[in-house]
Specification:
The structure holds 2 protein chains of 2 kinds. Chain A is an alpha+beta fold. Chain A is 35% helix and 26% strand. The longest helix of chain A is centred in the middle third of the chain and has 19 residues, at 173-191. By secondary structure, chain B is an all-beta fold. Helices cover 0% and strands 47% of the residues of chain B. Chain B has no helices and 8 strands. In chain B, the strands form 2 sheets. Chain B has a 4-stranded antiparallel β-sheet with strand order 1-8-6-3, with no helix packed on it. Chain B has a 4-stranded antiparallel β-sheet with strand order 5-4-2-7, with no helix packed on it. The chains are: A alpha+beta, B mainly beta.
């Protein structure tokens, strides 16, 4: 690998260019019209404009990216996250053009991107999935019998439903007996099909994920991250390693993740996402992300590894540089995603011109960003402005340093979510690590009610 | 006839349809109510409806489907009264 084209923008494009430079690999940026003067465009050794500002006409256009690769003499393509990163068709097109795709094979992306296929692979690898009936249950008696195996509370779901419609949660057999007929009738009316199936409902769920690296023949895990604090399914704060996960659970989850990688001969960096039931200590496979993730730096700070550099080495054909026993976590890291959104105005996106930009730094504070003084936050892409990642010898120290770091964060010209994190760090439930996937939205709703 | 300019409150990409497979919110020359949507603006992956802001006839769009717009930019004209 001599020349790497980075098929992305923003902080992750900057991050990838830096990793490539550390390894002595030349870099090619691609950019839209709006990003002609962006940091990634200027940092790369060469840059090519690939289209108008909207992503659908630039960063998502496979032919334009491949043409840029050809023109610049690139021999490899890193997709970053988002955009084309998990499109099997893109990985295949890159390979067909005779270039190295920095990620797993197209066939692995495809299989892991299919929810049903991914669950089957997980089961085959011995990775627990959410208990439930494989298909519909015929009647209330069959539902009651199935619920005994699945375990209460159960979700009663309409097979023909979707998007959260036609779902009921029942706590015990009596409630199931009452709800079944009614739910089935409603489903028949609403969706033209009364078939119901059952799935375990996790009342207190945490979202925990395991970072993995595979070279196609061997695989290791780089421990786990806590990602429960989400708004509208967008993660806002992540931690490594996850508080509230016991050593036993950690061992089982990480071993399961490595087994899953071996099952598919996984090659590259990836993340296996789980739902953890805080009440029972069980964990269930949700999905595997076959790309680098936004929150990878939290893992880098506790393991001392450069995940993007290892991703590049693996793509270049090198075997893993370390074995599992070499991977240990030191201290605790927290990542905050600072977005150009206005928390006082229902998180309205806040594009615009930046004035002064002051980014946090100092001991054990890392800030991955593309933002620069007098730069522009374009309206065309996601709102991530900067990631502030803070390390401490333990979680308490990481939280104290996070308060300092986020208080330093200041940009003029656009609203950001930095101040909100300052408030969050003073919440007792956060400092105690007592939260679940619904906690952040509940807190935001309460906060809004008070204001 | 008094002319009312419909203005996009935010910068982004203007769409005349709620989704690619649907008909436009309003055809040229169509009648609109004040609170009726005439388009969508996509900003940072979120979509915001642009309301006509006045009752009348939408006589002309000043921007095309999928055009980039600035905050405060007129996107259509409604003839009122």
């Amino acid at each position: 690998m001599k020349r790497l084209l980075v098929a992305n923008r923003g902080e992750i494009a900057v991050r990838i260019i830096r990793a490539a430079r550390d390894l002595g690999i030349a870099t090619v940026a691609v950019h839209s019209k709006a990003d002609a003067d962006a940091l990634h465009t200027r940092l790369a050794d060469t840059a090519t404009e690939i289209g108008p500002s909207p992503a659908s006409k630039s960063y998502l256009v496979i032919d334009a990216i491949l043409a840029a690769a050809k023109e610049s003499g690139a021999d490899a393509v890193h997709p970053g996250y988002g955009f084309l990163s998990e499109r099997a068709g893109f990985a295949a097109a890159v390979a067909d053009a005779g270039l190295t795709f920095v990620g797993p094979d197209a066939s692995v992306i495809e299989r892991m991107g299919d929810k049903v296929a991914a669950r089957e692979i997980a089961r085959a690898a011995g990775v627990p999935t959410v208990p439930g009936t494989p298909g519909g249950v015929a009647d209330v008696d069959e539902a009651l019998a199935a619920a005994e195996d699945v375990g209460y509370p159960v979700m009663l779901k309409a097979a023909a439903g979707g998007g959260g419609r036609g779902i009921r949660v029942v706590d015990d057999a009596d409630a199931l007996r009452t709800a079944f007929g009614q739910a089935s009738q409603e489903a028949a009316k609403a969706f033209g099909d009364g078939t119901m199936y059952l799935e375990r409902f996790v009342t207190h769920a945490r979202h925990v994920e395991v970072q993995v690296l595979g070279d196609g023949s061997d695989a290791v895990h780089l421990l786990d991250r806590e990602c429960s604090l989400q708004r509208r399914r967008q993660k806002m704060v992540e931690e490594a390693v996850a508080p509230g996960v016991s050593d036993t659970l950690r061992k089982r989850m990480t071993e399961a993740s490595v087994a899953l990688c071996r099952q598919v001969g996984y090659r590259s960096a990836g993340t296996v996402e789980y739902l953890v039931d805080d009440d029972t200590g069980e964990f269930f496979f949700i999905e595997m992300n076959t790309r680098i993730q936004v929150e990878h730096p939290a893992t880098e700070l506790v393991t001392g590894l450069d995940i993007v550099a290892d991703q590049l080495r693996i793509a270049a054909g090198e075997p893993l540089r370390f074995v599992q026993d070499d991977v240990t976590a030191r201290g605790h890291a927290i990542e905050f995603r600072v977005c150009a959104e206005d928390p006082a105005n229902n998180f309205l996106p806040a594009p615009g011109a930046l004035g002064r930009v002051t980014l946090p730094a100092g001991p054990w504070v890392r800030c991955d960003t593309w933002a620069e003084p007098d730069g522009k936050v374009p309206p065309f892409y996601d709102s991530l402005l900067a990631k502030v990642i803070v390390w401490g010898a333990d979680r308490e120290e990481a939280i104290r340093r996070s308060r300092r770091a986020l208080a330093e964060f200041s940009v003029a010209g656009v609203a950001t979510t930095a101040g909100l994190f300052g408030e969050l760090l003073d919440e007792d439930w956060f400092t105690a690590g007592e939260f679940h996937t619904g906690t952040l939205e509940q807190w935001l709703a309460t906060r809004e009610g008070n204001a | 006839m008094p002319r009312h300019e419909v203005v996009s409150p935010i910068p982004g990409v203007f769409y005349r349809r709620p989704d690619p497979d649907s008909p436009p919110f309003v055809e040229d020359g169509g009648t609109v109510a004040a609170d009726q949507a005439v388009g969508l603006v996509e900003v940072m992956k979120s979509f915001h409806q642009v309301a006509a802001g006045a009752e009348g006839t939408l006589v002309e769009f000043l921007v095309g489907d999928e055009d980039e717009v600035d905050a405060g930019q007129p996107v259509a004209v409604v003839e009122t009264g």
